Fold these 2 entries.
Entry 1:
Amino acid sequence: MEQQKRLAILGSTGSIGRQTLETVDAYPHLFEVYMITANSSLDLLIEQARKYQPEVVIIANENYYAQLRDALADLPIKVYAGAQAIADAVTLPEIDIVVTAMVGYAGLLPTIRAIEAKKTIALANKETLVVAGDLITQLAVEHRVPIIPVDSEHSAIFQCLVGEGDNPIEKIILTASGGPFRCHTQEQLLKVTRADALRHPNWKMGHKITIDSATLMNKGFEMIEAKWLFGVAPSQIEVVVHPQSIVHSMVEFADGAVKAQLGTPDMKLPIRYALSYPDRLVSTDRKLSLTDYATLTFERPDMVRFPLLQYAFDAVEKGGNMPCIMNAANEIAVAAFLADRIGFCQIAETVAHAMNTVDYVASPLLDDYIATNSEARNCAARYIETLK
Ligand code: MG
């Protein structure tokens, strides 16, 4: 029998985390859950811990530590709390693959530690590469650690590159669904609510990424993620709106050939591939039936109505800590929008303010990123106060 791969799933209670556990359910002979972590979803984390009986369970929010420990007291599970505990535990020698499925900047430190400990990274936390792509990719090369994308677009690009050897990428065509407001006018955008924004047409995802999809910030992040994962310049990445979400992305080569990966909009496939690469596992999930789709369409994104996509290109061109500033301000602005404290268009306004205000650092080290992250969050929070 093949040896089971032991997984550490960071963010096991989120959308990607839950689907990773469902993947383990489908292939129990291949995967074993060694460690799970959550930010603050205590009840679900307890339920998952009792079901999968991992060696290690960690809750990032330390206020829940006692409750978690007491709830699992009858099981031989090591229970910890806090961000530092997560960053330490990913280095445990038994772990083979670290699935980084937590939300936001919180992914940065544990990803760094996991790379240093030579764990294969199944990367679902795109913010890590947005914030510190230079640092992460350098570390991965240095420690010879594979970073396998879980994001559907990047999984598609990764799959298009299998077998291409040294053939250089001419262009990446990154597809975007366009989100729920693709056809909204500027005027309509000013009035959209939290509920409208959370209604994504194709993908079922967590709240943060669903809002990022509605603003196209998510596509901006994915452009930066692609730059780092595949070593291309931003000018080689074309974002194309494809509302059906069937073509998950494409790669153009020097001879003009364009390869695409297609599938139903279901994160299970990229998760499965990241865990099983280079093998493909047999799946009974619903398969793509192209005749169910009368047309597949492609159009240019509108960066005037969706300025955050333009800001992502601006931030990555400026480089340094600018993408980190953008990400931090966006996290604060999205949280404020989800709390009904600001309007939809004020998310971009807040990000622009932080990008224009926070000190620019051209060649940041890890400490600079940590300082920038907190400075930009404060800057965004102060700006939001003035919007009331
Ligand atoms: Mg994606």
Note: The pocket of magnesium ion is lined by residues 151-153, 222 (CB under 6 Å).
Entry 2:
Amino acid sequence: MQTEPAILTAAICGAETTREQTPYLPITAEELGEEAARCAAAGASVIHLHVRKNDGTPTQDRALFDKAIRAIRARCDVIVQTSTGGAVGMSAAERAQPLDCNPEMATLNAGSLNFGEDVFLNPFPMVREFAARMREKRIVPELECYDAGHIESCLWLAGQGVIDLPAHFDFVMGVRGGIAATEENLRFLVGKLPPGCSFNVAGIGRFQLPMAELSLRMGGHARCGLEDNVYLSKGVLAKGSYELVAELSKLARAAGREIATPARARQLLRIPARA
Ligand code: KMH
Ligand code: ZN
């Protein structure tokens, strides 16, 4: 059986990573644009995007997303996947703002969980509202699942007509409060997917590269970047998400996978053509 090309996603900024943890975190639109271009050159076809105020505070401000998206598009052809998760504690209205920028893709967080010492709230009414707005704007959702029950929730919502199947899932593994990043768990999660669905894996912290490798060997896709992990190897900071993308590209090739171009990734992810 021919395996699909691997879609590599770079989560270049996030909401939690700080400049104290790594000086390489991009913050301004220009920095995000430059970093996205380096990631694209290293093999990323999707940029998972958060934005910050100049002082590094996470925000879902529409104008800042517009600016960052323009800075990215001016430098490279990638699928921009805007976050609707934002940072813990943000309201639904704040989190939904980037959907007004008409990105090609956005995250749809499938359920609530303890998130470290915080709680990340994604109640069903919020998931339904975000899904409806994405459908209306033809924005393709990536279904963020932090635990097995979140997959079951997506399938239940699909039964209600809220989510279209087949869909693209992202298994976020290793959040304190979510499912642990183990091979046994990944096989269990993948076993829950209906036919035709695709999956991506975002391993947190030191699990990033090993879980990416496993996913790529299992026929899945992979995410890396400073949002989830700041280290290239033990004690060595990545100089940017692009260094991690370069590692993923090597792992994909070693697994016998081609790297998806943005055009191929759009086909695989069923992203509608834009004017
Ligand atoms: N910052 C996390 C609480 C997403 O981008 O949709 C949620 C998050 C998920 O990063
Ligand atoms: Zn995110």
Note: The two ends are 35 Å apart (CA to CA).
